[in-house]
Amino acid sequence: MHTIVTVENRDELDKALLEVGMAIQTGDEICDKAMEEANDRNVNDSELIVIKLENDPADLSTTVFEVIKDEDNPAIKKLSFREFHYF
């Protein structure tokens, strides 16, 4: 089992959060949840992880990450930010 500890394209997530007025710290929460879920599920390559924030009506959103292999070391898996939807 490989532990996922890295999120690629994090700057794109931060940009999407700022565009809708959400805090960068919310991005930390989203990424932490995504890594935790991916590690708990022992995900395969190209599998999608979807994180929904529903606790605060101001932060209703869905964020999608893809599990990918590290280009330099294929034995290492990481998450790559793909989509952000704000409701």
Can you tell me about this structure?
There is one protein chain. By secondary structure, this protein is α+β, with helices and mostly antiparallel strands. Helices cover 32% and strands 31% of the residues. The protein contains 2 helices and 4 strands; from the N terminus they run E-H-H-E-E-E. It has a 4-stranded mixed β-sheet with strand order 1-4-3-2. The longest helix is centred in the middle third of the chain and has 18 residues, at 24-41. The termini are far apart. The model has no long low-confidence stretch (mean pLDDT 90).
Quick rundown:
The chain is an alpha+beta fold. The protein has helices spanning 10-19, 24-41; strands at 7-8, 48-53, 61-69, 77-86.
List the helices and strands and how they pair.
Blueprint: E1 7-8, H1 10-19, H2 24-41, E2 48-53, E3 61-69, E4 77-86
Parallel strand pairs: 1-4
Antiparallel strand pairs: 2-3, 3-4
Radius of gyration: 13 Å
Q: Order of strands side by side in the largest beta sheet?
A: 1-4-3-2
Number of helices: 2
Helix and strand content put the structural class at: alpha+beta
What's the end-to-end separation, in Å?
Answer: 35 Å
Mean pLDDT across residues: 90
Number of strands: 4
Shape: elongated
Keywords:
single chain; 87 residues; alpha+beta; 4-stranded mixed beta sheet; 2 helices; elongated
